[in-house]
Amino acid sequence: MQRIRIILFVLLFLMINTVAYAASFEKIIGRVELCRCNQDFFVQVQIGQQVQVGDVLRTGPDGKAVLRLDAGSTMSFGGNSEFKLGGEIEDDEKNLIGTFYRGVLRAILSKREGSYIATPRSLIGIRGTDISLTQKGNAGFYFLDEGRVDVQSDRATAVLDARQMTATYAGRKPLPVFTFSKSSGLSQARDRLSLLTSIEIPPSLRGQAQLNEILARWIINYSHYLADAGKAADAETALLIAEELTSRQNVKGEVLLQIGGLYFYHLNDVNGALRSYRRIIREYHNTPYYENALYGAIRCFMQLGQNEKAAEYVRRYEELFPDGNHVQGLDSLVR
């Protein structure tokens, strides 16, 4: 009987521990859903519900969640976020804490060196850290409040210390590290991130869009500095990030105009400049940048020796802007 009891106890212990619960929901607000590993459907979660390695959580536009990993580590998610829990707690999957696909995340982590968070385009190495992330499409921003992290993309690694940030775009190296406490725009963005991930503050349906526009505006300005400093490739990355972030037509037109100028004047890529100008002409003709895009396209056609196409665009410019800013410039171009 004693042996039977021992065997039953061991079997019960093994059955309990074969379910690898690695985390649990500490707080939730609004719509927060979970899809179990290898299942197809998301279901609404409850406070205290446990999460296994491979489970995917997502928040709705009105959702926020705090995921407790262990006594010293939490992850707070804002609205429209998606995250898959990794196997770091079980010492497998190469110390992967999880994969952050989109949205806003603040991670307070007391992890041993070697742990990391993945995004679709980068890896964030953790060394005991308080980091906030926002991810949209190909663009990601990383703000570090405490600790030290390595942000590794396909091309290079950026090392962040406290109060520093960087941004990434798919297939490109991270932007040069910047101290965000020195920039009012970035400090505003960092404060917005805190609001979006704070469970105590009701969610705002416009909060994520407002954050993206703040970041887009700052990074457009930063691209000017990078271009003037001779860092044309970094300036191009910054502008691509800005285009990914913004949803405003005027801002997209401005970004494309800046990209066109960067290609034409700094990267000696006339065809690249022409593509940007023609996108404005096709897609953003109702923005204030249409006139400059027409003029830029004329310059590109002339440089490429496509004089007939240039003449076509000149006629269009003169029809729409008879008193435009570039009328005198056109006269000298077509002589």
From TrEMBL:
It holds the Pfam family TPR_6. This is Uncharacterized protein. PANTHER family: FECR PROTEIN DOMAIN-CONTAINING PROTEIN, LIPL45-RELATED LIPOPROTEIN-RELATED.
